[in-house]
Amino acid sequence: QRNLLEFVTAEIIEERRVQLQLEQPYVIDGFTGHFSGSKVELVRETPQERINIFFNVSKSVPRRCDESGDLSPVRSVPKFEVLIRRNDLLLSIFCVYKPAAFGETDGEGDADDVVFEIQDLSLYKNGWNDSCFTIDASLIDDNLQSMLLHVLEEKGITQEFARRLSDMATAHEHALYIEFLENLSKFTVGLP
Fold first, then answer.
1. What is the strand order of the sheet 116-125 is part of?
2. What pTM did the predictor assign?
3. Burial degree of 170 (CB within 10 A; 0-12, 13-18, 19+)
4. Which of 19, 156, 173, 181 is 20 to 30 A distant from 61 in Cα terms?
5. What pLDDT, in 10s, does the model give residues 19-48?
6. Which phi and psi (to 5°) does residue 108 adopt?
7. What biological process terms from GO does the record include (predicted)?
């Protein structure tokens, strides 16, 4: 346990040294952030509609080694749900970051400017339940996908917004990792 405690203590010191700070208020392009543990909700409301974006930073950082064995920068890329509410109808669009997002390439040239894509969609009344129909975005027409991405852009959920969302997620995930290390240290020495 002593080796573990020494290692965790050194890790806490190093992680605090490189820690990014989230500045209050937590706002991205008019969306206000609310944090509850690893869960994050961004909200923007207009008289016509309410838009919520939900994501969880747990397990949102992919493996860090590239093919050469070098460590790549740590970046949180959580799946996120965009929920657009109009009256009692809700359009749910689940989005994922592309594997080649943020400068990583697949060996075929420069990284694409597109960092996220739609994974699946639902449209339902009042609230979601298991009987609501959800469709995998890969099964819908490319033109419809493009139009839905355009709808997201009109709502402010652009590729640049997704980059800033990842920045926020990265800072929040890192703060939670440091908190985890501090709690592990307390656990190791038997403190309540």
1. 27-28, 31-36, 39-45, 50-56, 80-86, 89-97, 116-125, 134-136
2. 0.85
3. buried
4. 156
5. 888 877 899 999 999 999 999 999 999 888
6. -115, 40
7. cytosolic ribosome assembly
The tokens 């207009």 sit on which residue?
A: 46
Q: Is the per-residue pLDDT at 66 higher than 80?
A: no
- Sequence spans of domains, the chain: 1-59+75-101+113-146+160-184
The CATH superfamily label for domain 1-59+75-101+113-146+160-184 reads Mitochondrial glycoprotein (3.10.280.10)
Which amino acid makes up residue 91?
L
CA-CA-CA-CA torsion sign (25, 102, 94, 50): positive
As a whole number of angstroms, the distance between CA 181 and CA 16 comes to 11
Q: Please count the other Cβ atoms lying within 10 Å of the Cβ belonging to residue 82.
A: 21
Q: How far is CA 124 from CA 91, 128, 149, 174, in A?
A: 7, 6, 19, 35
Residues 121, 94, 65, 37: what is their CA dihedral angle, to the nearest 10 degrees? -150
Give the total residue count for the chain.
192
